[in-house]
Amino acid sequence: MNSLTVLLLCAGVIAAVNGAVLNQDLAQYKQFSQECVSSTNTDPKEIAKVYQDGPIKNEVLGAYLLCMNNKYNIHNANGDVDQENLRKILHVFSPSEDKTDIVVANCSVKKEGATPQEVAVELAKCTRKYVPIKAPKANAV
């Protein structure tokens, strides 16, 4: 086997593994999102606005975002951000380790007196400054 064949074979395996991970991430996202929409009575149209750079308002999306962050173990019960779990989730949105480091450093700080729901909203707003939040797929919510 020549080196080009080996390289192409490795690239194919990596792409297949990455595709499987992304499909698994998407399936999990859909499940979590449906559960959070149901438990928080959040309008899916409001969630879709987040992916179109729409406003992220606490009174509209706070409960949903907190629910999603809890499902992904990004927050503990006090609303503190678990930086390692945040880092793991960010790989879905940003392949750049530098951007991940920037988001973790700048967006995971809980403001004094903030409720867990407020922390979830601020985390989403801050993350969007550094990493575009794209919809995982149409009708994912």
TrEMBL record:
Signal sequence segment: 1-19
InterPro entries for the chain: PBP/GOBP, PBP_GOBP_sf
The organism's place on the tree of life at top rank: Eukaryota
Record bears the keyword Signal: yes
One Pfam family cited in the UniProt record for this chain: PBP_GOBP
Keywords: Signal
Protein name, UniProt field: Uncharacterized protein
Species name: Psylliodes chrysocephalus
